[in-house]
Specification:
This protein is 12% helix and 51% strand. By secondary structure, the chain is mainly beta. The protein has a 20-stranded mixed β-sheet that branches. Strand 18 and strand 19 form a beta hairpin. The radius of gyration is 25 Å and the shape is elongated. The chain starts with a strand and ends in a 10-residue tail after the last helix.
Length: 420
């Protein structure tokens, strides 16, 4: 009484001109609810997804989100006339990023609060119940421009309830890999179906040595609104379990972070998000010698929409060094940023040496700041012809960003002198 499909492939929109599938399903079986079809509802009793394989580039996701959608008129209706069960509120304008993330709003932008809709009759809970069974799934997200950058979730299993009364389910992942070099045993996340929403509420987990608190929700409504909130409570950062064969390149005594993403699943261009991270007592070690940079405090604040990402305020402040960054990257591939490094004369000389001994012809010439005991250097970063470049070459010439950064920060050379 159902339908079985073998080797289902789904491709990105033809406008993007890509031939590789967005994802593949080895076997898909759906037990259709014929009674719900007779009532005009597209429902199933059981949907089994086996051997799901998602292999997508970050750049492709960016292009999909940037595409115009035909659902904008429907979304306007949804936002203007929300369901009485809608529980997600938007950020009021004029608040700081810290204050906004405190409220943890999930979806849409101009839904009035629940107190503005009194005397609403609750919708009855239906008896019909369905579920989704996921087995042997794999998700890999990688970058076409940054070689080796990827995130892989392997051995994904799940039992996800849908429709009907309040029920529980769970999703598990056998292994999580970062850049194919760092991996960790997977995790299990409980989910709850309630009030036409599938949600994860303040679930605590540990990934790559970090304690996280996860909240997420998907509502079965017009446009399918979704929301994700990931926070890091105040904690030290210990990545010794990640860097098993070598010393961790940095340490943090106190780290807090709040990150959220919200939008309509059927209209990717509506997605928006924000991130704010605060940290104290950061030590960045040079893997080649005993040198390093120390920072007493810092903050990193970002906002993201379908148009792109903006670094609103990124700074790390120490007694000898300070780094200040702002910039943007658009969905169209444009990007620009300015990195200001402020250091004492001794530290500025040390940084200049590190850059000068790199294989390329590089030059990091510092200039006097207003105060005589500080020097500064502004490094400009831009996307040029699809490649990220920065003006760190001799006479401020432009050189490839990632290759140069790897040579300056990560290159191994046993002949290097000890630098302060």
């Amino acid at each position: 009484m159902g339908v079985t499909v073998s080797k289902l492939q789904v491709f990105v929109p033809a406008d993007l001109g890509q031939k590789n599938p967005l994802f593949t399903v080895g076997k898909l079986r759906i037990d259709v609810s014929w009674l719900s079809l007779l009532k005009g509802k597209r429902r199933w009793d059981r949907l089994e997804v086996n051997q799901l394989d998602v292999n997508v580039a970050i750049e492709t996701v960016r292009e999909i989100i940037a595409m115009p959608t035909d659902n904008s008129s429907k979304l306007v209706v949804l936002q203007g006339q929300p369901d009485q069960d809608e529980r997600y509120h938007s950020n009021p304008e004029g608040q700081s990023a810290d204050e906004k993330t405190e409220q943890s709003p999930l979806v849409p932008s101009d839904v009035p609060s629940k107190v503005d809709r009194p005397n609403v009759i609750p919708m009855p809970i239906e008896n019909f119940e369905g579920e989704i069974i996921v087995s042997n799934a794999k998700v890999r997200i990688f970058s076409e421009r940054v070689s080796g950058l990827s995130l892989t979730l392997d051995q994904i299993e799940g039992e996800i309830p849908l429709w009907g009364s309040t029920r529980k389910g769970e999703i598990s992942c056998g292994e999580i890999s970062l850049s194919e070099e760092i991996s960790e045993v997977g995790l299990t996340i409980p989910v709850m179906w309630e009030d036409r929403s599938l949600a994860v509420m303040e679930h605590s987990l540990k990934v790559f040595g970090l304690n996280l608190e996860l909240s997420a929700a998907v509502k079965i409504a017009a446009g399918v609104p979704v929301g994700l909130h990931v926070s890091l409570p105040d904690q030290p950062v210990d990545l010794s379990s990640v860097f098993r064969e070598q010393k961790s390149p940095f340490s943090v005594s106190n780290l807090t972070s709040k990150n959220r993403l919200q939008g309509y699943l059927l209209a990717p261009s509506t997605f928006k998000g924000s991130s704010i991270t605060n940290f104290e007592n950061v030590m960045i070690n040079d893997p080649r010698d005993e040198g390093g940079m120390r920072f007493n405090r810092g903050v990193a604040s970002f906002v993201a929409t379908a148009a792109g990402v903006v670094a609103k305020d990124v700074r790390a402040i120490g007694e000898e060094d300070a780094i200040l960054i702002n910039g943007f990257a658009t969905a169209a591939g444009e990007a620009a940023a300015t990195v200001r490094i402020v250091s004492s004369p001794e530290r500025a000389q040390s940084h200049a040496k590190r850059v000068r001994i790199a294989p390329r012809n590089l030059l990091m010439d510092f200039q006097p700041l207003n105060t005589p005991d500080r020097l500064f250097r502004d490094i400009h970063i831009e996307a040029r012809d699809g490649t990220l470049m920065m003006d760190l070459g001799e006479d401020r010439s432009w050189v490839p960003f990632f290759d140069t950064a790897e040579e300056v920060l990560g290159g191994q050379n046993t002949d290097l002198p000890n630098l302060p």
